[in-house]
Predict the structure of Arsenate reductase.
Amino acid sequence: MTVVLWHNPRCRTSREVLALIEGRGITPTIRFYLEDVPGVVELAEVIGRAGLSVRDAIRRKEPAFAARGLSDPALSDADLLEAMVADPILIERPFVIAPGGVRLCRPAALVVDIL
């Protein structure tokens, strides 16, 4: 199985994860998810495989989070997923899909267990 990194090169943690993967001699498939945005179904699947809730996988620090009113507890997972797909900067990063599973690698060292 290929290792896939949902990568934002402007993110320090994402760059650290890439370095850890490459340091193990693995050349991952890099998905620039801000441009190659996952659909709602794919995003929900990856979040679920990582063992997270949708709220765990959304970036609360992004201005778009507050601007869209996404802290509202009445919003459903579907509402949040739609917002994340519409504005992918809201997707927490970096996600890694690897032979050992799927993980949101924050902190970066979490990637080692799934390679």
